[in-house]
What we know:
Layout: E1 2-7, H1 13-21, E2 35-40, H2 44-53, E3 57-59, E4 62-67, H3 73-78, H4 80-86, E5 90-96, H5 112-144, H6 148-165, H7 177-183, E6 193-199, H8 212-220, E7 224-228, H9 230-238, H10 242-252, H11 258-269, E8 272-277, E9 282-289, H12 294-301, H13 303-307, E10 309-316, H14 317-323, H15 326-331, E11 336-338, E12 348-354
Amino acid sequence: MKVGIIGLPQSGKKTLFTILTGTQITEGTQLGKPIPGTADILDPRFDKLVAMYEPKKEQPARIDFVLLPKMEKETISKGSIFQDIADMDAICLVVRAFEDESIFHVDGHVDAVRDTEMICSELLIHDQIFVEKRLERLELSLKKIKDEDQKKEFALLQRMQAHLEEEKPLRLFDISDEEEALIRSYPLITRKQMLVVLNTGEDAIGDGKIPAPIGERSQRDHMAVLQICAGMEAEIALLEDAEEKTAFLEDLGIAEPALGLLTRTALEALGRISFFTVGKDEVRQWLVRRDAPAPKAAGVIHSDLERGFIRAEVIKYDELMALGSEAEVKKAGKLSVNGKDYRVEDGDILNIRFKV
């Protein structure tokens, strides 16, 4: 599961990537190539479970972020940036929304709406060009030999082409499992889930104001959008004392660091949810596909648990917090016992019973 961070030069991509992953980008780092990193999922529920159980070991879930080369005329014209994006599972677009005269903008002035529209258009154009070229090759091939799979693919790509010509990303395009198999290897970028991060100035912290055109596009194109002040988040990340960090956030009127929201939003884009296992030995957060059955979640923990799955004992996070302990949850009859058909929900606390 890899989330690619993209954006124009001087948008704050490197700052955001460093805060998320702790990866330091030095002068020797090859900025023309993707830079991988890993970030903890910042989830207040995990922190509260750790405080409740005081375990010997704690392990939050993690997510891979990749800092991709900046989107500029050279990388766009060569097409290399699109090859890098095609290798990602989801896209995080960082858009500059802060004013700072000491930091240049490639187009002369800051305009978050313009930059968002431009990059979204470039991604659409990439997919249009790919589909057009593939249709041309298929048309030539079908003149020589009538292949049923190629005929199906040709019809599918024609529908995709019409969809893209309406300036709609392919994540909005309905496709069957059979059709999915025909194009699985294709580098179609707009099929990927996308989130837009508006990198604001300190004056916009907490106002939650998304420019109307970006908000409208995000709803229309199924993109998540949120605001982060990367500069301020970098200062918060440097604070090691938890109480000092909490006081700093309270002074700014921030309920939690925006990076927590970002990592969880990235999870949603990847179609993943969190569940937990708890105890005095370890509190751990796990990731599984949304709507996964209980045995699949058990398999995330260990293959033996999936193979020998008997049942899943489930406690809902909110009920545990409200009642204060597992003993009180059981006393209230809130612990449920579920079989193979149970669909794991975000925040579930699981205890898997199995036999191999």
